Amino acid sequence: MYPRATIEVKDDMATPTLRHFELIGADGRPLRGDIRTVGTGADRPAVVICHGFKGFKDWGFFPHVAERLARGGITAVSFNFSGSGVGVARDRFDEPDRFARWTYSNDIQDTETVIGALRGGTLADALAVPAKVGLLGHSRGGGVGVLYAARHPEALGALVTWSAIGSTRRWGPETIRRWRAAGHLDVTNSRTGEVLPLGLDILDDLERAGTALDIGAAAEQLAVPWLIVHGESDETVPVRDGLALAERSGGRAELLTIPHGTHTFGVRHPWAGTTPAFVRALDATADWFARYLF
């Protein structure tokens, strides 16, 4: 187990400020995000938070993760991928046409755009360039984080993945055949019952990219300090994905499996409170970033 290095809240009365930003996303339309920070001191580290499939920056635990990091002296940056389908509504899929055109390559490009603006000092007015940058990705966002980190080893000081997918190829041949025949795959939002059609862009992207979107191969290349957190009872991305990523890392990544932990560590949307599994995941994450970003 890694040595413990806890992020301490700098001021018990400090409340992080919340600012919004807007960049140009991979699809040429707005890429919207939030910045939470306490104070404006220079050289503080930053962490970029990447949500998963059918997720968004304001889902369930993400604002609470960002608040925890900000109160510990880290600038927390969260954003909606351009293919998330969530726009100005913040908590519902008001841009289904963007969801339909989602691709992994666009997710990586969006991540490059946000981190590039952060490291270049152009993300927001009066926001200091961070001394170091970390990335926290959940589920699909975890897989994207691994792919990004392999491509840009100079950009990150630490990586944490929660419930990360171990492969971008999530569908079997028969599903893909029917998908291509229909021109879309219906995806159901289990929370609302809303059906979101997913177009052919993702399949075309996977065919074009080939090994460039191989998360396992990217894991073998990573040199950045990497913590893999996975629930043992994950019903969406089995814990074997986390175990496989740890194995592919060649021992360079730390693996934390959480007993009884589900895909979202028991947290729901809208936020209804914390859980022991979530607390353990968040504490380990805060410790990891404290160790490698300060």
Strand order in space, largest sheet = 1-2-4-3-5-6-9-10
Regions with little confidence, pLDDT below 50 for 5+ residues: 1-5, 9-13
Envelope shape:
globular
The number of domains is 1
> What is the CATH top level name?
Alpha Beta
Largest sheet: 8 strands, mixed
What is the name of the CATH architecture? Answer: 3-Layer(aba) Sandwich
Helix content: 25-40%
> Number of helical runs?
9
Protein structure class: alpha/beta
Element order, helices and strands? EEEHEHHEHEHEEHHEHEH
Which homologous superfamily in CATH is the superfamily? Alpha/Beta hydrolase fold, catalytic domain
Structure explained in plain terms:
By secondary structure, the protein is an alpha/beta fold. The chain has one domain: Rossmann fold (3-Layer(aba) Sandwich). 33% of the residues lie in helices and 19% in strands. It has nine helices and ten strands. The strands form two sheets. An eight-stranded mixed beta sheet has the order 1-2-4-3-5-6-9-10, with helices on both faces. Helix 4 (140-151) crosses helix 7 (215-221) and helix 7 (215-221) packs across helix 8. The longest helix is centred in the last third of the chain and has 18 residues, at 276-293. The chain is globular and about 55 Å long. It starts with 16 loop residues before the first strand and ends with a helix. The relative contact order is 0.16.
Gist of the model:
By secondary structure, this protein is an alpha/beta fold. Helices cover 33% and strands 19% of the residues.
